[in-house]
Amino acid sequence: MELIQGDRNSVYRLLGAEEQMLWLGDIAHPMHFAMTAQIEGKFSIEQLKQALALVQQQHPLLRVRIALDEAGQPCFVEADTSIPVRVVQRQGEQHWQREVERELSIPFVFWEAPLVRVVLLHSTDVSELILTCYHPISDGMSAAYLIRDILQAIAIPETNTNSLPLPASLEDLVPRRTDENRLPLQPTANTRIRKQAELTQRSQLHTQNSDFRDCLYSGSLSKETTTLLISRCRHEQTTVHGAICAAFLLALIRQNSSAQPQILKCFSAINIRRYLIPPVGEDVGLYVSAELTSHTLTADARLWDVARSLKQQLNRGMASDTIFRGIPQVEVWMSENPSPSQVLEGMLEEYGCDLLVANLGRLTLAQKFGDLELQAIYGPATITGMEKKAMLAVATLGDRLFFVLVCPDSLTTLGTAENLKKDAIQLLNAAIETQGEGLDRTLP
């Protein structure tokens, strides 16, 4: 880890408070994520590399590393380094899951650019493209847009030639009251020295000990089942997100033999791009918030009741006067110069949950790119850092819903992870009265 050296024009900007929080948290425990696209059609490795070069030139944050300035503040610094590509021969339908597990086990080194990497599971007819991103530079929607841009650049290279402006930090786009000012993040000299020492020590330890093996399970709903689910959610006055969360929360309850009511908490990542001023369109950056909902449940609770409760709690948290309430708190926290371990502990205390859910919703992405077709998208998959806690990533592409369930070894070795997935699917099928018809299981 180093101070900024060389050309000062290579410094893009300071990290925003939320970017800085995830930067520090990632030093204590990996927080990067992976998105997987299943692609039908033929393309060469050289075509992919050329497309990545075009997309990297288009999006500024794909060209950065992080370094400290003279005041000890982290900055995005431009570096001329190509996006690395690891190519493996595709070995079957489930192969990509093992490669995502591997990617999640390998942390980023924040002072080395770029903070994104690609794995291609290559075959003549069907391939999987795994895009792994460092969280301070990207959210799940950013990764979905990047996958689209990469496929577009493969199909029509001349379409991705313009470099976009540097995306602003989330804090610069938040509507604020006239009496509300942003706090400067200026550490003292002693704090800077302590921070540099800890960052260096922890980062070296972090890169040497990447034993973060979680297991990934995937699934999808057929077009018919997805359509039925959407229709039934409207009838029940809730959302697909509410129904999916409810199914997995109830599946978690069923893993416990206790008949007593249990309180389960669900973490929902929230896309806040449209709430910002000006609204953020398809920029690659970090534009997410989070809400924590609480549910007192028994094994016989009705899925639709849980789904409605979750929707109501989320709606309260996403009201115009509350959706940004956490941002000033993060700014205050970062102004106090917490250590990586303090940030991780604080995040786990604030957002500790039984289930972490990232739902990208219905993606408005094209699926045809010349001779290529985007058949499926899975992610954003990450590891929670919480013992025996699962992470669920959901995305709807075209008329199909795809999901991945990431479970720590503690759940996998207990044999509960596969049962968790199966129970949740059974609950969903029962709730929409399809008796399992139309469900595609991507695991044997």
UniProtKB/TrEMBL annotation:
<comment type="similarity">
    <text>Belongs to the acyltransferase PapA5 family.</text>
</comment>
<dbReference type="Pfam" id="PF16911">
    <property type="entry name" value="PapA_C"/>
</dbReference>
<keyword id="KW-0808">Transferase</keyword>
<dbReference type="GO" id="GO:0016746">
    <property type="term" value="F:acyltransferase activity"/>
</dbReference>
<dbReference type="InterPro" id="IPR031641">
    <property type="entry name" value="PapA_C"/>
</dbReference>
<protein>
    <recommendedName>
        <fullName>Phthiocerol/phthiodiolone dimycocerosyl transferase</fullName>
        <ecNumber>2.3.1.282</ecNumber>
    </recommendedName>
</protein>
<keyword id="KW-0012">Acyltransferase</keyword>
<feature type="domain" description="Phthiocerol/phthiodiolone dimycocerosyl transferase C-terminal">
    <location>
        <begin position="220"/>
        <end position="334"/>
    </location>
</feature>
<dbReference type="InterPro" id="IPR052058">
    <property type="entry name" value="Alcohol_O-acetyltransferase"/>
</dbReference>
<dbReference type="InterPro" id="IPR023213">
    <property type="entry name" value="CAT-like_dom_sf"/>
</dbReference>
